[in-house]
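During data preparation, a discrete fold description was generated, and the record follows.
___
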Amino acid sequence: MTATDPLLRALAHPVRLRIVSLVWNVPLSAAELSRELDISHALASQHLRRLDAVGLVELAEVRANRGGRERRYRAVHGSPLSDQRHEGVRLIAEAMAHNLRERAGRRAPGAEGVTSDAELWVAPEVWTDFRHRLAALFGELHDAAQAPHAPGTVGIGATVMVFPLAEPDTADGLDTAAPETTEPDTAGPQTAGPPDTPGPDITEERP
């Protein structure tokens, strides 16, 4: 990371990533965030100040609370994790992976879900269409968000990072990767089985 990307440096922290999501549609105060995230009030305030400084959250309202004044913040809508910003992609990925591990530990027993992992090659128009539809789906999910633990809601954990892969370096049009070597067969003759049949790598999980 460099000194020229404070927004990415602010986002490259798992707690701040969660805060941006939590305040997407519902303004929350440092006190409310400290309870939801199980961190101190001072730490929640510090994270909010950092996000506010780079324009990811904004003051939504100030309300009276127990004789004092409570400042509540909401996310500034946009695409803070847009792949237009490449410099910090690995740090963002690390923060997202941290949150994924933490959320996986809080998964409701027997709950339905979707799990997918992919490294594949498709036509450019397929990739463009999929990317737009996936972004729209996540936009709908964010826009439907309510206050944490609101009656009639279910908590959702969702992590996604989808991107094109760089081709390996080539020289004179040839792949410079080391050739594969074949180990001698020392295990003796084996009975041939049916060829592997690849299946879809996306799973709809059910209880």
